[in-house]
Amino acid sequence: MLRRRVIPCLDVADGRVVKGTRFVDLVDMGDPADLAERYAADGADEIVFLDIAAAPERRRTLLDVVERTARRAFIPLTVGGGVRSVIDMRDVLRAGADKVSLNTAAVAQPNLIARCADRFGRQAVVVAIDLRRRREADGWEVVIEGGRTPTGLDGVAWAERVVELGAGELLVTSIDRDGTGGGYDVDALWAIRSRVGVPVIASGGASGPDDLIRAIQDGGADAVLAAGMFHRGTHTIGSVKAAMYAAGLDIRTAA
Amino acid sequence: MRVAVVDYGAGNLVSIDQALSRVGADVVIARDRGAIEDADALVVPGVGAAGPAMRRLARSGLLDAIRTWLADDRPYLGICLGLQLLFDGSDEDGTETLGVIEGRTVRLEDAPTLPHIGWNQVDRRRDHPLFDGIPDGADLYFVHSYAGVPRDVSVALATTMHGRQFVSAVARGPILGVQFHPERSGRDGLRLLANFVAIARAGSARTAIQPAGVTA
């Protein structure tokens, strides 16, 4: 059986892992390669790096971080943030990433998804979709730039569109829940998961193993991503996997 | 123990380079045929479609070198696309491939999700030193939508279930292939690469009386 994945997410700024609420009050959490190696040893199934600074002049710093990490953690590595062209994607893959996550650039130029998938295969193209629940109507709207900018796109329709264009995986983040610890938006996950055939990674709002279990059982998520609960040490990869295993989920138990 | 890793511009070579180095190989990234000819073992990684890969290999002159290598029955490990290329051809884009193992590469049927991404169990079909020290049913990391279907099932070392069973590792003499990514599969993956290096080393010890360059 294909296992459900647990993925710690590391927000990286200027070569360091940082923690903060909605990009303010950032606290230094350490070296990305150190943390990735520790999470891998503890049973993480993949690592996601999000470059939250992503200024063009800092590009080299990010690529160095990716390469140092790829040389120490022998599990898959996805990198997001600031990838705006096929060349950007090539550089990140060459540095040692296995997958690249496209977000704002995919909304601005949807054909980038197709061009990246043609060149590197769809399995290497993750499209990150940030969602905000609509207040006046049913459903979710796609937002970009860390949730600051609405796009007018319907979340489910956009998910179907990016899969048609060549996305091999979707990283679905609830901006309403992100950083709140209130649990994933399970309705949004299921609305998307029931309409696409590619794996869906749940993100935004997890504070404990029950949230991860619900995202899989009720949201149909193929993988669950979390940051704060692991960085703060309130839960470890090992402890949440033990809870998921006890709940009857198919997970990888050996590191 | 010099292991040439074939580079045809498709993607991440850092992890395979690092993983092979970790298990004691001297890794050479091979971008032309000269880099292959001096090697003791050949690793062909890669993801994506067969057509672009075959074209890029042909352009760099690596394709002929790989064909010669395989015809001489020298140690080869194909990873993901590097395994699929061993078959006669791929249904993904109709490309004819190396034809070392009879059969075709086809889309995974009845898969609940595609691409097949993540850790899945690798169930052994027969004993082979490539899997020494790795538990039967170990979870290893996959990223693909297509897989080779060998006509002769006796080449299958292992199978994996995703909707339907598919062949996830093959062996034909010293020519080996795995559909998963050992370089991204944690401790068990590193063990498999160490086993490959050991197999290649044993093979080169047996043929050491041949003068260098005899196969060129």
Per CATH, which architecture of chain A? Alpha-Beta Barrel
Low-confidence stretches of chain A: none
- Gross morphology of chain B is globular
CATH homologous superfamily placement of chain A = Aldolase class I
Structural class of chain A: alpha/beta
Biggest sheet, spatial arrangement of strands of chain B: 2-1-3-4-12-11-10-7-8
Q: Averaging pLDDT over every residue of chain B, what do you get?
A: 92
Radius of gyration of chain B, in Å, reads 16 Å
What is the CATH superfamily label of chain B?
A: Class I glutamine amidotransferase (GATase) domain
State the separation between the terminal residues of chain A, measured CA to CA.
Answer: 17 Å
Q: Largest interface by residue count?
A: A-B, 34 and 40 residues
Largest β sheet strand count, sense and barrel closure of chain B: 9 strands, mixed
Query: Mean of the pLDDT scores of chain A?
Result: 93
Description:
The complex is a heterodimer of chains A (255) and B (216). Chain A has helices spanning 32-41, 59-70, 86-94, 104-108, 111-120, 155-165, 186-193, 209-217, 228-231, 237-246, and strands spanning 5-13, 16-21, 24-30, 47-51, 77-80, 99-102, 125-133, 140-144, 149-154, 169-174, 200-203, 223-226. Chain A is an alpha/beta fold. Chain A has one domain (5-246): Alpha-Beta Barrel (TIM Barrel), CATH 3.20.20.70. An eight-stranded parallel beta barrel of chain A has the order 1-4-5-6-7-10-11-12, surrounded by seven helices. In chain A, helix 1 packs parallel to helix 2. The longest helix of chain A is centred in the first third of the chain and has 12 residues, at 59-70. The two termini of chain A are 17 Å apart. Chain B has 216 residues and is an alpha/beta fold. Chain B has one domain (2-206): Rossmann fold (3-Layer(aba) Sandwich), CATH 3.40.50. Chain B is 27% helix and 31% strand. Chain B has helices at 14-22, 33-37, 50-59, 62-71, 81-84, 186-206, and strands spanning 2-6, 26-30, 41-44, 76-79, 89-90, 103-107, 116-124, 138-144, 146-150, 156-162, 164-172, 175-178. In chain B, the strands form two sheets. A nine-stranded mixed sheet of chain B has the order 2-1-3-4-12-11-10-7-8, sandwiched between helices. A three-stranded mixed sheet of chain B has the order 5-6-9, with no helix packed on it. The longest helix of chain B has 21 residues, at 186-206. The radius of gyration of chain B is 16 Å and the shape is globular. The two termini of chain B are 19 Å apart. The model of chain B is unreliable at 208-216 (pLDDT under 50).
